[in-house]
Amino acid sequence: MSNLLPPDHAVRSQAIKADESFIVQAPAGAGKTSLLTQRILNLLTTVESPEEVIAITFTRKAAAEMRHRLVESLLFAQGAEPQQAHEKVTWQLARQVLERDAEQEWHLLQNSHRLRITTIDSLSSMIANQMPVLSSLGGSLSITNYSQESYQRAAESILNYLDDEDYGTHILKLLAHLDNQVEKLIGLLAQMLGKRDQWLRLLGAGELDIDILEDGINQIAQMRLERLSNFQSKLENSALLSAIHFASGFLDADHELAPLKDIQLLPSLDYQNLEQWKAIASFCLTKSGTFKKQLNKKIGLVADGDLEGEDKKVGKALKADLKELFADWAEIPDFAESLADVMSLPKAVYSPEQQEILYSLLHLLRLVSVELTVDFQSNAEADFIEIALAADRALGYFDEPSELALKLDYQISHLLVDEFQDTSFTQYQLLSKLIAGWQPGEGRTLFLVGDPMQSIYRFREANVGLFIKTQQEGINGFPVTPLQLTANFRSSPSIIDWVNRRFDKVFPANDDALLGAVSYSKAEAMKPDNNDHFVKFLTNFDQAEKNEAEQLAQEIRQITLEHPGESIAVLVRGRSHAQDLMSELRASGVSYYAKDMEYLTHKSCVNDLILLCRLLLHPQDSLAWVGFFKSPLVGIELSDLTHLHQAFSHQFWTWLEQFSSVEGLSAEVKTRLELVSEVITPAIANSGRKPLSQLIESMWLALGGPSSLLNQSELRDVYAVFELLLELEQKEWPITVERIGTAVSELFADQQADAAQVEIMTMHKSKGLEFDTVILPSLQRQKRSDDHQLLLWEEFTAEDRTGYLLAPIQAAEQKEPIYQLARDIQSKKATFEDARLLYVAATRAKKRLILSCELKLKFDEEKSEWSYNSIDKRSLLHYLKPHYENVIEREFNSVIETLETSSQRDETQALDTGWYRLKSHVQLPSIENQLSLIQKESLEQESLKQEGLDFDWASDVARVVGLVVHKQLELIALRKSSFEQLDATDYQVVKNQLWELLDSEKEVTQAFVKAKQALINVQSDDKGQWLLKQHQDEKCEWELTGTVTDLAGKTLVRNFIIDRSFVDEQGTRWIVDYKTGDHQGSELEQFIQAEVERYSPQLKQYQQLVQKVDARPIKTALYFPLLKQFVEISG
Amino acid sequence: MDFSSIDAEQSLIITASQRQSRYLRDEFAAQQIAQGLDVWPSLKVMPWNAFINYCWELAQESGLDMPIRLSSNQGRHLWQQMVASSDVVEPLLNRKQTQNLSFDAWRVCQQWQIEHLGAMPGDQDQESFAEWFSTFTKDLQSHGWIEAHQQANYLLKNLPSFAEQLPNTIVTYGFQQPTPQQSTLIELLKDSKDVVNWALEVSANQEHVQLCSLPDPSQELIAAVRWAKQKLLKDSEQTIAIVVPELEQKKSYIERLIYREFYVGDLVQGKELTHPLHDFSIDESLLQQPLVAVVTDWLTLTYQGLSKKQLQHLLLSPYLYNEQESHWQATQFELIVRKSTKAYYSIEDLLKLSRHHQVKLPWLTFVDEWLKQNSEALSAKQGFKSHIAVVLKLLAEVHWTGYHSITSREYQVQQTFIEAIKSAQSLQKVLAGKINFAKSISLLKEHLEQQTFHQQQPKAPLQIMGMLEAIGITFDAVWLVGATDQVLPQKATPNPFISKAIHRKFDLPGSSHNREVEYAHSLLQSLLANPELVISFAEYDGEQEQMMSPLLKTLLPNHTVHKQTLESQLPGELTEWPINGALEYYGDDKGLTVGEHYAVKGGTGLLRMQAASPFDAYLRYRLALQPFEEDGLGISFMDRGNLFHKAMQIIWTRLETQSALLELSDDALEGLVKQTAQFVLNEAAKHIYLLQNQAFMDVEAKRLEALIMESLDLDKKREPFTVIGTEVPREVELAGLKFSIIIDRIDKLRDGRLMIIDYKTGQPTLMSLLRDPIAEPQLLLYAISEQAISEQSNSDSRDEKQGVAGIVFMQAHLKACKYIGITSENDMLEGVKALHDIKANPYSDDFDEAIEQWKGMLEEIAESFKNGHADITEYSGDFTDHLAISRWSERGESLEALVNGGEDYE
Ligand code: SF4
User: Fold this and answer.
1) Residue A829, pLDDT score
2) Distance CA A819, CA A806 (A)
3) B903 pLDDT tier (thresholds 50, 70, 90)
4) What average pLDDT does the structure give for chain B?
5) Smallest Cβ distance to B891: which of A131, A911, A929?
6) A845-855 and A865-868: which strand pairing?
7) Chain B closest-CA separation from residue A387 CA (Å)
8) Is residue A583 pLDDT above 90, yes or no?
9) Cβ-count burial A701-720 (b if 16+ within 10 Å, e if not)
10) What is the mean pLDDT of chain A?
11) Does residue A763 contact residue A726 with C-beta atoms inside 8 Å?
12) pLDDT at B605
């Protein structure tokens, strides 16, 4: 890179000034990221803590990149100063940050969290999470993966309100409007919920004010009229006026052009004169919006033959003049369009019917949004919109930046927003709330950067009009200085020239915030040019042999040969647009990486897995069973399936169990079924009990799945599905087939990126990237038009007033002018954005840009001639058409010369109607554990015995009595307490303990009686007294640890607690366990006998242990305080 | 750890966590065994909470009159109930989280001994918390209770009552970041005790540490698991740990990796792992265990109905059925539930429905009978505990383990579940008064949500643990994954209920970034004490680029990051799997010939399908495959079609002739139409629920009336005709197969010929009669049938012509009402051309000949069906329900070459 200063050098230095606010337009390749980095660095040198600087990026990926970039520049600044001029600035700024870091002990390099680079969504949730009550979020909320389902449920809830006094009529009103199509209404409502951040704001104000809405239409009319001022001088042409005069004389009073009668002079461009202007426009234009070529009596220009005398002369001359005039005007760009826009304007009146619909609609929208909240509440999940709304709500509480600072821990001193052109209205509002109370010159700054020419996220509510508006008036009264970068560091002059020349024409001449129209601003190339840098336009026709895919594949191959190591990208508008090219590339041996381009559901091996899921999840799914039997994993032929079906109908379990009894099945089929039965039967037994993902994986392997693949690369696809199932099941259980289906349909084949020569991706995805060569194929393809919406709305500012346009959906088979106007605005927006998409795609190229299209040839039998499909307005080719029309025509002419004159072009696709399956005798590898589990058999013996479960809890009091008695006996033996003491305090300590351990008065009393009885028993029992009195080497609650050997011969460490142990006068060590069991009634003997049997193994173990530490003879015993029984066990 | 420096019987070791206690006990045991001992006095080692309770009991024993301790469950519950009932919480979206977060704030306030909250006036978050705080404190006091986190503070004030009873030597371990509560108490103990702090030793030499990076997180985990496998293959006695941040989310993936890498044999055979070599430090949620989930859904039935989802769950899950047959029936019954849009089922609904469909649901009958016998117990308000006892009784009596023998894991789940239910009873203490059964169950569920399950198993050599659990514990080798700058240090997240000022003043957890750095540091230090340590991070997570934790650079300044790549991400046995030649290619385009008794169901649909794609026809009509049905919410297009058909049948049966129609006055006509529409709609309302709503019905009626009117208007303009039949049933034989058809309408024209009319409320096309394969064969079949009949009947009146003069659809659509079809001559119907004038006519220009051709064509189709032809055609792709069976997505590839080519792709 050269050391020369770019032409916009001064702008760049200005843009990093830490005390000023800017909005910077940074076109493609302008080095926006370094500018942002530098500004952030510079800001950091001025703040108390780094958290005061917040930079907002469009994606999390971009946030991570920006953060890393900053960290890297800081690390870089630890080294020596670089030589390159453009690196110097960054280095120096970073250096200063390091100094500040040291001074303020920020430790930025240890903790990159301190750099607040975040997406607007994370910022929203950070804010909302910090204010659980204020934001009504209640704490952090996980984001639902299935917001559509929540919307749908909320929308469906309207059915519960059909009989509701308030809502019932509104629902039925709308249903009637939509031809009683319940599901359609619900679907449209659900769709609206996905945009509720926008209309909720409109509804927020309360009841509907039709005047304001009608005023909004007037404002739009006004704006459109004002655009005519560009052509005012033309319109004032006397020929037009006199023609109008002349014609109006022939019009009846109720003619649609009657308003022409009042025109003496050109009316002023004021919406009050709209009717006249509309008449003028209709006078000049055809229905399709072009200047008239035929003048007739429909507009008062009566045919010459019908005129007489003076009229005839005048009329003739006028018509001649007018024709000429219109012919001239047709050449003036935008003229006809501007007039047509006026012509199509509706009256600013909502009919009573429309008003009612609107009113009902708004009611219903409120209802479903409340229902949605309830839905979110019950699932403790929400969508991003809810979080944004919550943050918005929370921020609404703070008027002063200082209050917000207290709440958020740090004040926000500097806010930077990247990709500002893709900001939505909601995000814009959040920004304005964040800077509420900011005053210019107080040290807080705003820095908005982006490129309105690259705004391509309308489908995510990006509103480029906001960029234009902010350039003009700042945000929320806070002024920002507009700056414009022009240097392009990416592309070669060949590319830049082309882009400058073409897009100057493709883009509209003037900005328009309402329509999101952005004019073009030129770039200056900073890179040197080279001979092999070029822009190329290729025209192809859908000929079998010489089609586009093939041509491009060759072209690409050529480039890979000529420029090995250089990057090549194919950018398409829709995923499907690259399918043909991909297969051609495969055929010509060019490797490509097409991330997220190939749907996994297009692979049979993946569908086989889904079939397995289906039959496990629902054993009645006969389609799944048959699909499975026909899959290569099983491979049973139709005739055999029919035999089985005849025998057992759809009892598929029986198929597997009893197939051998079915007549007509061959031995081979039986072998196949045997294996299948072996695998499937246990899997089905486990379905609903074990994770589905695990069952599927084991079934697939056991059936020989890997051998059944046509291509080993599909293994990755199969495992991608396993992993997806795992993930889904973790989130939700039990899982449904529908859920699996949707999730799989969003999976793409994974590919090896490393070695690929070509990258294929969508144009949207390419934003922010660059490639040496860029290929834009299939530019003739169109995208589908926007769906209908329940409500269309526009929000705009005109003359400092906010205007609204609200249009409820039109009834089936009807055209509502206001709705049409709103549709028109939307489609204009879409058109402007398409042009920008083409710009984004084209500017990814550094050295070479290839544009290409494939047009469809048609043969007209009657005329016996060839033609090609016209270029659709919704295609990107449409924008290049003016420049390349001739090229296309020329190519077409040369192509048709080679063509036969016949329309019969057979395009039968080759279809392989055969089947494949695992060979029946195929030896599947036997799969063994990699790690053999330790001593299997012995472990199995030890495996847990399943005893009867204990559903009874009456024993709880008994257990607590045991605890308390043990405790007291210990204390007494340790002489920390005594029976006398207990007696004196009426066993209060015991009672207290019981209160902690038990929950009700009743239980406490019950337990107390027992515990007290037990203690009194001991006190009055000689054996008891003997146990507790002082002995030699005595222990209470004696804790020992020791090794024991388990059944498998493994050494285990175990802990033991011995209730009481001591050495008696005879030198015998006693080991005694207290048992507080009670027994009423007879058969006391048997009870004790049973207890002894139960506990002697344990005592035996104690004995063995103690023996190791005490060589004295040992005796063991059980003591039953409640029964006053002492039983010696050793013998 | 040098245990010889202390006298085990005279010392007490306090650790920061339970895990550390266990670790020290194990270490101690290992040393004792190494010294040749079999038995030794147990080491007194306990985590902090146990220590506090130990002290508490000592103080109690000393006779101090102390408050009653609430268990942590009880305290938490009391707090949550209070918060939940607070007005400000009512509208919040995530109330659970509010309860938890605020309780956490309470805990922090106790541990940091914060008494003055200093809420910012007007700040609803902080004010709410301050209020809860004081309410809670008062509530506890009034009952004489103490919450678990308060205990230590209480003890601090009563040190003399227990301190003396403590052993003389006290060792602390693992308190890297003690709370003020902890440090004050430990500090105070130093006055009278010998307090020692133990820590892990970190060797100065850092050669035992390796840094590496892998391309993405899943490869990182695979690498770690394979590393562990290699170690275990060498020596299965050693202890190994894989430390995973955010283990919760990755657990099931890691577990699957371990299955694939360790026990693939068992995985394939679907075997139960009872003694795995690995163990996770975190537990599973108890409620999410299938066995438990089913039962909890089922319990709902005891006091309220089931949601559709719950019901489906009960029907599909194998538990709760004692034999396969009844489960099979239940799954069949599920299809009925699935189809319906009914969202909620009461027990009565279920009884009725199951009776109607004759399905036995053991769990339903059980509940029903049980409810009848115990209705009083259930409706009465009682103590929580007695309700719980009822639940246990229910569980004891219902059969809920399915018809398969349960595994040891399932048994353990069951056991844990019952114990968890029993443990719920402790909540009784903090519940005020009596409650009803439903409320008890919901409390029980809340309680159960907190409960976890961990399968019992012997100590496993490989531990997979979260970062926190790894502190203060060592292994023979450890791998830490995910060491990125986002995780080490973590982001500071202050508790929103405590003001930032307090956070800073007390240096609370999450209060500052520096605190997080310190914390991360001590964590890494602790890891460094392991004799072998690998630390890794993933370069990318999805599209997002990641950086290594900057702390590692500081801690290990001389280490370089080693870039690792895996040879394959696929499990090992797949890379060795023999792949070639296992497949064979075969044709299967013909099934069995139709048997003698085959009865055609579904009429002409069969012909249409057979014409387009014989394979799909075979699936549908021979193997009787059909997708699951699902009802629509409102009135469907099909319903509307039926309504129109019925209405027209009524009207034309009544009118019979066009002249009758023409003679009707406008009023009379309107009356007839209205009445008819009303009649058919009323009939339909019996099964279309929305039609029971009058206003909805009105809209639908208007719609229907308009359609009828338009259709009649159309017929008014025709040449005179007589309707000789509506909904005429016929039987036609083709290739020996009998097809039952119903002809919507047959008009007799003035000249005696017949016009056959098929109503369509959609938008039919002429092409559907002309194209090959034939898309709408029914009209052709009608023509064949009527032609034959009229030929047979050989009319007696001579001036009447014979035969069929046209076949038409009547499109009855809001867009337009018109006839579309074919007639024998032009202008018989407006807009309908004669066969010979249709450009794309593939048939003979002569109508009668054409009918003969149709007959031949349809015979052929029927013949092919009869013979079992089942080829896949280019139209097979139209049958979306069958695409997975016909393997449509790969039909464009040359399968034969792929299978037989034997080339090794890739
Ligand atoms: S593709 Fe463009 S917009 Fe998307 S993350 Fe990358 S740079 Fe940002």
Assistant:
1) 92
2) 8
3) very low
4) 91
5) A911
6) unpaired
7) 10
8) no
9) bbbbbbbbbbbbebbebbbb
10) 88
11) no
12) 92
Residue A936 pLDDT: 47
Mean pLDDT value across residues A49-74: 94
Considering just the CA atoms, what is the radius of gyration of chain A in Å? 42
Describe chain B by its helix, strand, coil percentages, rounded to 5. 50, 15, 35
Best CA proximity match to A338, nearest among A442, A418, A230: A230
Long-range contacts of A899-903, Cβ-Cβ distance < 8 Å, separation of 24 or more = A899/A543, A899/A857, A899/A866, A901/A859, A901/A864, A901/A866, A902/A859, A903/A859, A903/A861
Q: Determine the residue type at B768.
A: S
Contact at CB, A627 and B884, closer than 8 angstroms: yes
Contact call for B891 and A912, based on CB within 8 A: yes
Report the pLDDT value the prediction gives residue B844, as an integer from 0 to 100.
92
Site to probe by mutation for ligand 1, drawn from A58, A68, A571 as the one with most ligand atoms within 8 Å of Cβ, is A58
Query: Considering the entire predicted model, what is its pTM?
Result: 0.90
Cis preceding-peptide flag for B773 (omega within 30 of 0): yes
Which pLDDT score, from 0 to 100, does residue A1022 have? Answer: 92
Q: Which amino acid is at B192?
A: S
ipTM of the complex: 0.93
Whether residue B489 is preceded by a cis peptide bond, meaning omega within 30 degrees of 0, is yes
CA distance B206 to B219: 26
Distance CA A999, CA A960 (A): 11
Position A4 confidence tier, pLDDT thresholds 50, 70, 90: low
Q: Work out the pLDDT band at A247, boundaries 50, 70, 90.
A: confident
Question: Tokens 């890739």 identify what position?
Answer: B906
Q: In 3-state terms, what secondary structure has residue A930?
A: coil
DSSP characters over A300-339:
T---GGG--HHHHHHHHHHHHHHHHHHHHHHTSTTHHHHH
How far apart are the CA of B543 and the centre of ligand 1, in A?
10
> How far is the C-alpha of B467 from the C-alpha of B851, rounded, in Å?
81
B517 and A110 within 8 Å at the Cβ level: the answer is yes
Look at residue B883 and give its three-state secondary structure: helix
Cβ-Cβ contacts under 8 Å for A1131 (sequence gap 6 or more): none
Residue B113: pLDDT over 80: yes
Q: Is the pLDDT of residue B39 over 70?
A: yes
The enclosing H or E element of B464 equals strand B462-465
Q: Which amino acid is at A686?
A: N
Asked if residue A595 has its Cβ within 6 Å of ligand 1, the reply is: no
Contact indicator for A385, A196 with CB cutoff of 8 Å:
yes
| CA closest to B410 among chain A residues | A689
Give the pLDDT score at A852: 95
Count of C-beta atoms within a 10 Å radius of residue B348: 10
Q: Which two tokens stand for residue B198?
A: 């133990």
- The residue written with tokens 């209070």 in the block is B82
Q: Check if A1109 contacts B (Cβ < 8 Å).
A: yes
Query: What's the mean pLDDT in B460-464?
Result: 94
Q: Cα separation of B487 and B485, whole Å? A: 6
- Phi, psi at B817, each rounded to 5°: -110, 120
Contacts of A412 (CB under 8 A, 6+ apart): A52, A54, A401, A404, A405, A434, A435, A444
Note whether A415 and A434 are within 8 A (CB).
Answer: yes
Residue-wise pLDDT tens digits, A743-767 = 999 888 877 666 788 999 999 999 9
Residue that wins the pLDDT comparison between A1050 and A1109 = A1109
The region of weakest confidence among A40-49, A295-304, A991-1000, B806-815 is A295-304
Phi, psi for residue A409 in degrees, rounded to 5: 85, -45
Q: Does the pLDDT value for residue A166 go beyond 50? A: yes
Q: Which residues of B57-84 are buried (b: 16+ CB within 10 A; e: fewer)?
A: bbbbbeeeebbebbbebbbbbbbbbbbe
Q: Which two tokens stand for residue A21?
A: 């606010």
Nearest to A22 by CA among A599, A420, A548: A420
Q: How far apart are CA A342 and CA A261, in angstroms?
A: 19
